[in-house]
Design brief:
With about 475 residues, the chain is of the alpha/beta class. The chain is built from 23 helices and 8 strands. It is flat and about 75 Å long. The chain starts with a helix and ends in a 24-residue tail after the last helix.
Length: about 475
């Protein structure tokens, strides 16, 4: 996400940071380029203008121009202004502390991803907040909309209100409220109907539903890929219904980012969540500081830690921790690390979240290295016997040929995998010498991110920075493995 905008801004700031001393005109020229980048990213014109004016006013001050690192100072000012534009330092989550049942009303146009987002939020509420949730579909217009929510409810293990054919939205809302109260549900999510565009019928229905359900949260779901149209839709809704927040869907496909940057400034409502894929776990809290980090190529460590904690099984983490304490790291451990990387989103996703990894991500893309590499490396390990996985030193020339044939690769790829294992094993022995996990945790100020469940030592997966990566990333691979046809 934000790749286009990030690349453009990265180019502008690289020039600034490479100059040393800056004149006022240098800053103004750079801000002109930033303004063009924002407009090309589909940021609303008033928002872009206000952003540039605020940054320029601060950046041309004498404290900045006379500082030791004026280029860095300008980047810091842009970062701070990005965070402010996106909604401030604090992420704004759901208000679930009201008297139950807490009612969350989902609104938006047809095709914005409202029903899927309802199920994603219900799953989040159940798993992260430990609340008992009920979902109810009020969409009687779209064919099979109510059945769709019932199917999704089964997938996320959240109850849905039984369907009564012919019942109208307001009556369904009343029945849902009664069911939530009688069955002691903590949260009720109402998935309302959408239209192809904002019209009087849509608004009248939403207001009627709101009047009988008195929602604690009214979340507008908008498709970020529609860019400026998403902003216009949000503006229309915010003028008609008491919105409490916005959910941006398809953020993973939004290379421009204009909707995210404009939404808060135009509507005054916080963006609370971002949909990052089609799967039901692919939704994350919208953190302005993390988004600003990503836009400026600084990574997003907080989201990476959360992803690791949610994805990596506790028993796997404990097994790896025990092995590290013994200074042991075999090929089964390596296979587990490769599997975890895939589950967390793959190489590209992790690289995009790591500070300073933007250029490495581009290099991986240019070399043709993608997430299939992880699958193929796992195939190489799977072609070995249990004894070979526990004792990689057994891998002589004959065994390597057999494994290469079994995995559909070649001996060179098997050698590269073994080299990767050697480097990781060496790193693990080094950690043992430093006192194991406890000694490392002390170095990181008493644990810090290393204490997160499922994270390997050092918080971010050992000395390599990325979870499961040895120092320097994937050593010696030199691009994607070669496979026999």
């Amino acid at each position: 996400m934000f790749d286009t905008l990030s690349d453009r801004l990265g180019g502008v700031f690289d020039k600034l940071k490479g100059r040393g001393a800056l004149k006022e005109q240098d800053v103004r020229d750079a801000m002109r380029e930033v303004r063009i980048a924002l407009l090309e990213a589909d940021v609303a014109l008033p928002v872009a203008r206000r952003f540039i004016d605020a940054v320029t006013e601060k950046a041309v001050g004498q404290d900045v121009l006379r500082s030791v690192t004026p280029g860095q100072q300008v980047v810091k000012i842009v970062y701070d202004e990005l965070v402010e534009t996106l909604g401030g330092l604090e992420a704004q989550g759901l208000n679930l502390e009201a008297k139950p049942p807490v009612v969350i009303m989902m609104v938006g146009l047809q095709g914005s991803g409202k029903t899927t987002t309802t199920a994603k939020l219900a799953r989040l509420i159940r798993e992260r907040h430990g609340k008992k949730a009920l979902m109810a579909s009020l969409d009687v217009n779209r064919p099979a909309a109510q059945e769709q929510l019932a199917v999704l409810g089964g997938q996320v293990e959240v109850a849905t209100l039984p369907i009564i054919a012919g019942q109208q939205p307001v009556d369904i809302a009343r029945r849902a409220m009664e069911a939530a109260r009688l069955q002691n549900f903590d949260v009720l999510l109402l998935d309302t109907a959408g239209r192809l565009h904002v019209d009087d019928a849509l608004m009248a229905e939403m207001k009627a539903v709101a009047s009988v359900s008195a929602p604690n949260e009214v979340l507008l779901v908008v498709d970020s890929l529609t860019g400026q149209d998403a902003v216009n839709v949000a503006q229309s809704f915010s003028g008609e219904v008491p919105l409490t927040g916005i959910v941006l869907t398809r953020m993973d496909g939004d290379a421009r980012g204009g909707a995210a940057l404009s939404m808060r400034a135009v509507t005054g409502k916080p963006i609370k969540f971002a949909g990052t894929g089609e799967k039901l776990h692919e939704i994350e809290p919208f953190r302005p500081a993390s988004i600003a980090d990503r836009i400026l190529g600084m990574g997003d460590v907080v989201s990476l830690v959360e992803k690791a904690a949610a994805t990596i099984k506790e028993e796997d983490a404990e097994k790896l921790a025990r092995n590290i304490e013994k200074g042991k790291f075999d090929l089964d451990d390596l296979a587990m690390q490769l599997r975890q990387m895939r589950q967390m989103g793959g190489i590209g996703m992790l690289a995009g979240m790591m500070p300073g990894m933007k250029k490495a991500k581009a290099a991986m893309a240019a070399s043709g290295m993608d997430d299939k590499v992880l699958v193929h490396l796992e195939a190489v390990i799977s072609s070995m016997t249990p004894k070979e996985r526990r004792n990689p030193e057994l891998m002589n020339a004959k065994r390597k040929k057999r494994v290469a044939a079994g995995s559909g690769t070649d001996v060179q790829t098997v050698n590269k995998l073994l080299k990767m294992h050697q480097e990781m094993a060496r790193a693990m022995k080094q950690i043992k010498k430093m006192g194991g996990l406890k000694g490392l945790a002390a170095m990181f100020g008493g644990g810090g991110m290393g204490a997160m469940p499922g994270l390997p030592p050092g918080g971010m997966g050992g000395p390599g920075g990325m979870p499961g990566l040895p120092p320097g990333g994937l050593p010696g691979l030199g691009g994607p493995p070669k496979f026999k046809k």
